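User: tokens in, sequence out, please.
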């Protein structure tokens, strides 16, 4: 079992409201809450595999958290990278990036195609899909008509989303264009938090299949690693904020309940996985669509990293503590 890599990223402050009481301080791989005059607040200090402060770029985050997952995926290992955190903490910035500093998805796609070019002894077939889970319903972001898709399981295919469109792709540009069109189909909803907050989980998936080029000509039996298939998931989770805070009712409340349910399920699965093989017992993948879809790429030999994004502002301190507690449980 691979250890799950857990990191925290602090985004830059968006407003320069001066803090009156507390601030978060990053020290190497530790983050702690301090009083404004500098003394640490006891009990509010957490250590992770990595803590990225506000000066860290997506390039650095990619290098440290995702590069190994991408390389392993080309060798046949499944992998998943998540962004977890409250709305406006920087999940989408981390995954999608900006023009100046492309996010993890673009960097992963580009590296995969670059490396494929260099692996001239193998032939690759790359398929991509893009889906969202909104109110525990799976929708296809590449084909708006594909809504409420079901999860199936078969001997041949393992766990899969029936009817999800998979596009065969040959270069990074093609993938980025597909993602752009898919992006337009994401569900957004206004909340009282003054942000366009994303209420759905999105999963960008690449299936990487490859086989050695020179196995048939000689007539020899292909070696056992002749064909490799791996699945790579890059996941932008829905905002983790508690429902009550958004002051929502009706539709928003329903969304919030589903989001909290699947994030809790994800937390439970990851917590069990990181418990170690011995006292792990049953892993509750079936408790949510999110964990069920990701099951093959979570646990076992899969490589997993979680980046928990936090907002530095004092008004967010309670949500930030919640995020850091989630991150701590994942270690
Ligand atoms: P989320 O997806 O978690 O709701 P966003 O990624 O949309 O949050 O981030 C909220 C705002 O903060 C956006 O305007 C985004 O560009 C900005 N932002 C987030 N993280 C960073 C960062 N590390 N550096 C610069 N700007 C950031
Ligand atoms: Mg977002």
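Assistant: Sequence out:
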């Amino acid at each position: 079992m691979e250890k799950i890599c857990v990191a925290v990223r602090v985004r830059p402050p968006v407003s320069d409201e001066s803090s009156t009481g507390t601030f978060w301080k990053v020290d190497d791989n530790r983050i702690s809450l301090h009083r404004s005059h500098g003394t640490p607040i006891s009990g509010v200090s957490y250590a992770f595999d990595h803590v990225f402060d506000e000066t860290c770029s997506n390039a650095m985050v990619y290098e440290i958290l995702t590069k190994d997952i991408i390389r392993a995926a080309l060798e046949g290992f499944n992998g998943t990278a998540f962004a977890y955190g409250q709305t406006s903490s920087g999940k989408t910035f981390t995954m999608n990036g900006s023009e100046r500093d492309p996010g993890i998805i673009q960097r992963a796609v580009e590296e995969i195609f670059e490396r494929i070019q260099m692996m001239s002894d193998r032939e690759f077939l790359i398929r991509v899909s893009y889906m969202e889970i909104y109110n525990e319903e799976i929708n296809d972001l590449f084909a708006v008509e594909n809504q409420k898709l079901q999860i199936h399981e078969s001997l041949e295919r393992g766990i899969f989303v029936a009817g999800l469109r998979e596009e065969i792709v040959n270069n990074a540009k093609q993938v980025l264009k597909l993602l752009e069109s898919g992006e337009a189909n994401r569900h957004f909803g206004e909340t009282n938090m003054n942000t366009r907050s994303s209420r759905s989980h999105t999963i960008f998936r690449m299936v990487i299949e490859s086989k050695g080029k020179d196995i048939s000509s000689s007539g020899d039996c292909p070696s056992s690693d002749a064909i490799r298939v791996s699945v790579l998931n890059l996941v932008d989770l829905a905002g983790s904020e508690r429902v009550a805070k958004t002051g929502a009712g009706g539709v928003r409340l329903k969304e919030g309940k589903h989001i909290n349910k699947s994030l809790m399920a994800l937390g439970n699965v990851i917590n069990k996985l990181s418990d170690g093989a011995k006292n792990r017992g049953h892993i509750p993948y079936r408790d949510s669509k999110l964990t069920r879809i990701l099951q093959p790429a979570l646990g076992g030999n899969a490589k997993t990293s979680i980046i928990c994004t936090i907002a530095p502002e004092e008004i967010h301190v309670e949500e930030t503590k919640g995020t850091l507690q989630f991150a701590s449980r994942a270690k």
